[in-house]
Design brief:
Blueprint lengths: L11 E9 L7 E2 L6 E9 L6 E8 L3 H4 L7 E8 L2 H4 L5 E16 L2 E9 L1 H8 L6 E3 L1 H12 L6 E3 L6 E3 L6 H9 L8 E3 L5 E4 L9 E4 L5 E3 L4 E6 L2 E6 H4 L28 E6 L13 E2 L1 E4 L5 H7 L3 E7 L6 E7 H4 L28 E6 L2 H5 L22 H14 L3 E8 L9 E5 L20 E13 L7 E10 L14
Helix pairs in contact: 4-5
Length: 504
């Protein structure tokens, strides 16, 4: 069970911090001599490995007695006031490798410097090059690469993908190949229907081997979403679609999230939000649990209509040119046609997403993207490639499904940045990137109006954790001070159980 010596929510106890050579020999405890000033750990949806830093205040000649060459193993165990509630009383454990030393300064008899650390897999990734062709479902390929190429024994949590892919790695690193795969992955829950579109032959210049074809693609209908994230958290490796990350468990009749979704690690993504984390005016906490109080709010730019148009957030055109067939294809994507089929964290609907009286913005594509699609080379099967097989009743296993989803993938990633926030809370080491957090921001209106609406209904609600940083500062307070900084984002405004008025 967790120790009961903590006086406030931010206190912690550093139970273990050792450093050893890359082969596990010559282990040295950094708790000896009290040289540790602070420790921090970082997770991100855009980062395939854990990162950390260890700041040392050294007056004992540690670097002389234990020269850092890179690759040293750092083992850390930390106990916090959250352990009993969220981690079954077990201390939080980290195991990383030293990458480099930065910020080294010498003053009188003391040296200050920071050891930058990363996961073991980040090291392995740098020396592995993939040469053999890859084929299969992306989620299966990710699992295979992490296990066989990165030699990782960590937990792997994946969401099944709908379509198979074939890739030529071209001697790239595993993490780079997986990053490319995230843009080609389509959730197994997605549905796709298409009608044979009309084609128009365009006569090419004399000497051309074939005529090109222009296809409108306007009859294609997408239900669901494309685009995945691959990242490492303290629980293991994760490969999930944007829709899965934005999904919430159902509410019961009393407005509470149904039981059975709060346990982790599990063979599924944690869906129940942490919190709520609440803004409280100074000295007016009214006996609230200090672990649920936000100490600092900061919101980034929330509305940039020009940037949204440049990114093709509302409507875009994806152009493919098939070098094998000479076929020229255009696919128009409009967010309002697929918005309702996506999962969202806020209460905004597809109409209010688009600025009032400017619905033409969703009708006229504001971004044109292009890509080369060499179908014959990519298809790589002994029979003749059919680039239109996906439009038939019996599509090829490796049909060019991605051309229908490419524009949506770009838009889906951009939608997540509709509202971004940064907040600082008492340290909770169990919160990971990819989790969801419920935030309550006080309504900035007259006191008499707060009775019915105590919280800002546009800013409050559930957010997705984009990045999380846990910092253990041993120089602050009697037992040290731990804080967690959350970088949050979501694709719509407001609270999920209330209709947003943003855009109306």
């Amino acid at each position: 069970m967790a120790e009961k010596q903590f006086q406030n929510a931010s206190e912690f106890k550093l139970k273990k911090c050792t450093i050893s050579k890359g082969d596990g020999s010559n282990t040295f405890s950094l708790l000896t001599g009290d040289v540790i000033a602070s420790i921090s750990f970082h997770e991100s949806l855009f980062q395939p490995f854990l990162a950390g830093s260890l700041m040392l205040s050294d007056s004992t000649g540690f670097l002389t007695n234990f020269p850092i060459q890179g690759g040293e193993i750092v083992d850390i165990e930390v106990s916090t006031s959250f352990d009993e509630q969220t981690n079954k009383g077990q201390a939080t454990k980290y195991k990383l490798k030293v990458v480099r030393i930065v910020g080294r300064t010498i003053k009188e008899k003391k040296q200050l410097y920071t050891l930058v650390m990363m996961s073991e897999e980040a090291f392995v990734n740098e020396i592995v090059r993939l040469e053999d062709p890859l084929s299969g479902k992306p989620d299966e390929l990710v699992t295979k690469l992490v296990r066989e190429k990165l030699k990782s024994s960590k937990e792997i949590f994946v969401e099944p993908c709908k379509f198979s892919v074939k890739m030529l790695p071209a001697k790239r690193r595993p993490f780079d190949v997986i990053a490319d795969m995230t843009k080609r992955s389509i959730s197994g829950n997605a549905t796709f229907t298409t009608k044979k579109t009309k084609t128009k032959k365009v006569k090419n210049e004399p000497g051309s081997a074939f005529d090109s074809q222009k296809t409108s693609g306007k009859e294609n209908e997408i239900k669901g979403t494309a685009g995945y994230f691959f990242w490492e958290s303290l629980r293991g490796y994760n490969y999930y679609s944007v829709d899965a990350l934005c999904s919430l468990p159902k509410l019961d009749r009393k407005g509470n999230y149904k039981e059975g979704t709060e346990e982790f690690p599990a063979k599924d993504l944690r869906s129940k939000p942490w919190g709520p984390y609440e803004e409280v005016l100074a000295n007016l906490d009214n006996g609230k649990d200090q672990r649920g109080i936000v100490s600092n709010f900061k919101f980034k730019t929330e509305i940039d209509i020009i940037a949204s148009l440049r990114k093709g957030k509302y409507a875009s055109v994806m152009i493919f040119f098939n070098m094998s067939t000479g076929q020229y294809e255009e696919y128009t994507y409009k967010v309002k046609q697929s918005y309702d089929a996506m999962s969202h964290l806020g209460g905004q609907d597809s109409v209010s997403l688009i600025p009032t009286n400017q619905e033409e913005l969703s009708e006229t594509p504001s971004r044109v993207m292009s890509a080369i699609l060499d179908h014959e080379a990519w298809y790589n099967d002994p029979d003749i490639a059919d680039p239109d097989s996906e439009a038939t009743d019996n599509p090829s296993e490796y049909a060019d499904w991605i051309k229908y989803y490419a524009a949506q993938t770009v838009a889906r990633y951009d939608l997540l940045a509709n509202q971004e926030a940064k907040l600082t809370i008492p340290g909770n080491p169990s919160i990971s990137a990819g989790d969801k957090v419920s935030v309550l921001v006080l309504n900035k209106v007259a006191d008499k109006l707060k009775v019915k609406k105590p919280y800002d209904e546009e800013t409050s609600g559930v957010y997705l954790v984009k990045e999380v940083s846990h910092k253990y500062d041993r120089l602050e307070g009697g037992n040290g001070n731990m804080t967690t900084v959350l970088q949050l984002f979501r694709d719509s405004y407001g609270m999920s159980d209330l209709q947003s008025t943003r855009g109306e």
